[in-house]
Known about the structure:
435 residues, 2 domains, 8 strands, 50% helix, iron, zinc, thiamine biosynthesis, lyase
Amino acid sequence: MNYTTQMDAARKGIVTKEMEIVAKKEQMEIPELLRLMAEGKVIIPANKLHTCIEPNAIGSMLKTKINVNLGTSRDCVDLNKELEKVNDAVKMGAEAIMDLSSFGKTQEFRRKLTHECPAIIGTVPIYDAVVYYHKPLKEITSQEWLDIVKMHAEDGVDFMTIHCGINKNTADRFKDNKRLTNIVSRGGSIIFAWMEMTGNENPYFEHYDEILDICQEYDITLSLGDACRPGCLADASDISQIEELITLGELTRRAWEKNVQVMIEGPGHMPLDQIEANMRIQKTICKGAPFYVLGPLVTDIAPGYDHITAAIGGAIAATYGAAFLCYVTPAEHLRLPDVDDVKEGIIASKIAAHAADIAKGVKGASDWDYAMSTARKKLDWEKMFELSIDPEKARRYRASAKPEKEDTCSMCGNFCAVKNMNRILDGEIVSIYDE
Ligand code: SF4
């Protein structure tokens, strides 16, 4: 192999098998894909050791991709349950799975994913370090934090969230400029606490070049973590968030100098009217690197419905340049999601991604809607179910309230506008009342 990473290949004009697959899926010419990848605007996260992967690319001009977070926790440690969720997520079309396991046999689960799952696999090594070393946070050494990154690379993960943007400088800014909900990123809070207790610089920032070397060796995509993403509307677009973003911009440049693929993580909670500006600022500071947003949740008041608050924000974010949406489930802020929560979260996220793809004019995106509307006009119920984003639910709803007139639905019956318009335009009589 005469290239290190997919980015390196693109810069050398080498067309990898992953690029060929992606170009076909995205209906994109190879030279255009190569140019965007060479510039860092499109990435193909694919660890050389994840041989069962079905590659996908992430970039704002491509189809918007979605990620599903899963993994064990101290209270929910059943690996089989998590694997069931993984299989459902892949079947439902999630392009990526992030394993956020923070308890139990984390390596066994991670290796199962990279040996059996065709989706892009991401992890957050910082969580795993706490599980793996099994000792007080303060006693974990800088070298040990880095060793976990190497371990995840060897286990075959395709991208890693590394919280390297919260260095001492950002931490000072954060302490000087009080926030309502402080740091809500799990990894961010861990590394901030470690820095406070040890007085040391963030090892992921201090030893960033070593991390880049690992990423280059295995072709790991760096997902530059946003420790200071706002956790409530009141903290959105504040000094800590922007300060960290500037650091992430600099770290993006350094990664690209070593041909390491990068994406940038983003908010968080954010009022609807701030989303567009945030997307534009990120694009400018990080020179068009793909933006991976965690929501954004457009209001703080809807626990139980945060798949909806996130889908509203995600659709707007993706319309203005986000490339990758992290799903949010109805269980957000409340508990570890169960199988049904995962399904609801995926559907909401897919709707947001698709709505944005239509707005962005992604090739082929609106064909799906055209086909659905054609079936609707013909009152072709089977076709409508088949084209539904959730065929099972569509079928179940219709079956639960059978209409008297089979071709209509129980909403309007004889008043069915679609049926009556078809008839009158075909020259038939429409009487409604006595039918
Ligand atoms: S009955 Fe009403 S809601 Fe149902 S298909 Fe016809 S127009 Fe649409």
